[in-house]
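PROTEIN DESIGN WORKSHEET
SECTION A - STRUCTURE
LENGTH: 253
TOKENS:
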């Protein structure tokens, strides 16, 4: 249980820094835009880890109660997965990157998405070894760090290639998704293996182009940024990279 206290304390510390650097007079500020987005991103992953551990503890208890019946049944898991997907689409397509209103609503949507996503995502670790999970978390962080540093070193390259690369990566993702659907009906371990490797490459590149997009948003920002949305773009990319790496490490092709 000690790790829950560590995660909880870390979340409190991050909330302090988010409040200190991301807000002025209870309104989000454009100052330190990139740093603030990373703070929200860090909070997202810590909140995900905290929620997953809380849910695992609740569902692991032998005692039956109403909370366990609600949170640990497959119907609620399915509901949470669908709801988190709908909330993500709602944020992505309807919430603006900059807006004078809706700051509280943006944060409610963000936290709701993270919690509902954690309900289903916790099953990703159900059959994995703890060593593999820790190894893949470390590897994901290293890839994120490397692909971000590359952008800091040569931002002009990613600026020039952004439009072309985003279209290419979007097409690649569509091909990967369609291939995964087809392979649900036709088992082909070798094909699934190469698709997993392709996904790792695509999501790694998306980290770099998400980073250059973050820089562009920082330049455009005048006031009232939507940090939850900015962080969520990174969050989804990194989660997909993590699951692809975990599948590769555990040999689940």
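SECTION B - SEQUENCE
RESIDUE ASSIGNMENT:
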């Amino acid at each position: 249980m000690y790790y829950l206290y560590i995660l909880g304390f870390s979340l409190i510390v991050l909330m302090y820094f988010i409040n200190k650097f991301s807000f002025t007079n209870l309104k989000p500020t454009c100052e330190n835009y990139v740093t603030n987005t990373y703070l929200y991103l860090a909070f997202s992953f810590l909140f995900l880890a905290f929620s997953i551990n809380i849910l695992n503890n609740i569902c692991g208890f032998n005692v039956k109660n109403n909370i366990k019946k609600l949170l640990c049944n497959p119907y609620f898991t399915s509901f949470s997965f669908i709801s988190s997907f709908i909330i993500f689409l709602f944020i992505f397509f309807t919430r603006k990157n900059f807006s004078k209103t809706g700051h509280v609503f943006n944060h409610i949507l963000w936290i709701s998405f993270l919690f509902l996503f954690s309900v289903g995502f916790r099953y990703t670790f159900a059959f994995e070894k703890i060593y593999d999970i820790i190894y893949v978390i470390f590897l994901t962080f290293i890839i994120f760090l490397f692909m971000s540093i590359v952008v800091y070193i040569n931002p002009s390259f990613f600026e020039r290639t952004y439009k072309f690369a985003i279209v290419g990566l979007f097409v690649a993702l569509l091909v990967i998704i369609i291939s995964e659907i087809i392979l649900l009906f036709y088992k082909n371990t070798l094909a699934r293996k190469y698709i997993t490797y392709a996904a790792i490459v695509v999501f790694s590149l998306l980290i770099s182009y998400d980073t250059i997009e973050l820089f562009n948003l920082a330049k455009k920002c005048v006031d009232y940024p939507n940090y939850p949305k900015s962080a969520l773009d990174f969050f989804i990319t990194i989660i997909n990279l993590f699951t692809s790496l975990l599948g590769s490490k555990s040999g689940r092709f």
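SECTION C - NOTES
The longest strand covers residues 23-24.
The chain is about 80% helix and 0% strand.
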